Target: tRNA U34 carboxymethyltransferase
Amino acid sequence: MIDFRPFYQQIAATELAPWLETLPALLKQWQSQPHGEYAKWAKVIEQLPTLLADEINLQTAVQSASQQALSEGEKQRIVHHLKQLMPWRKGPYHLFDIHVDCEWRSDFKWDRVLPHLAPLAGRTVLDVGCGSGYHMWRMVGAGAKMVVGIDPTALFLCQFEAVRKLLNNDRRANLIPLGIEQMQPLGVFDTVFSMGVLYHRKSPLDHLTQLKSQLAPGGELVLETLVVDGDENTVLVPGERYAKMKNVYFIPSVSALIHWLQKAGFRNVRCVDVALTTTAEQRKTEWLENESLIDFLDPQDHSKTIEGYPAPCRAVILANK
Model:
């Protein structure tokens, strides 16, 4: 099973040290009720070979490489292990000549977000709902001192640890399998990311308050979420499903979202990007057995979801505490 003690040691002498008052007990509880496949997934990480990369690139990709090429058999064994951790949703990863072609081209989103951020160099960063951790590695590549991702999903934790092992066991990023509602208000992170989370929350204002409670004074929130057209009173509340997803509760307009953030006490709130999600950014690959975006859209009219709602459009909002 995955050992969190190195992370405890890592934060003991940092501004995150107060988290040690509650974190070990929470993770012990998480480990006492594991997902049914967790033991199998954790074993995959053990079975992955320990390879030393001569070159690691986190600036323009998430990539490791060795001067000595792997044999075809070695490559196939690694591919076999990594495919035990499907579906791979956020990526892509280029690990020792193996291209893990995930459902999402998460590099597209990163390229839209990065130019607008306060520089990440030397910062302590929290990534809420981080998935398998693709963006966490890009944050490290942008110079972050330490990146902590939180996501309660056991599969994402195991995917993250598998990638870490193939990145020379880099410890500048760590994934903790908890939800933000389980975190005490630390108030120390220089930058907090919440990307693709808000529309899954039954109480979006509570989520914004929780994000604010993790930020240091003056720290920057990076919020990316689904939006619809309209004024500050426009909020779509879908029926049972939106784009075949069950757990979508509120999709505001950009103006409404800015209003929510101001109501939650954020300042300097601004929208820096709005982009329609395309089938080039989210699509089915050999690393995903499930349906993808093309299956969620009206086959006759891609400007609508299969339920008749506006097709996915995402905005990036920045704000300060």
In short: Residues 4-320 form a domain with the Rossmann fold fold (CATH 3.40.50.150). The two ends are 37 Å apart (CA to CA). The chain has one domain: 4-320. The first strand starts at residue 55 and ends at 57.
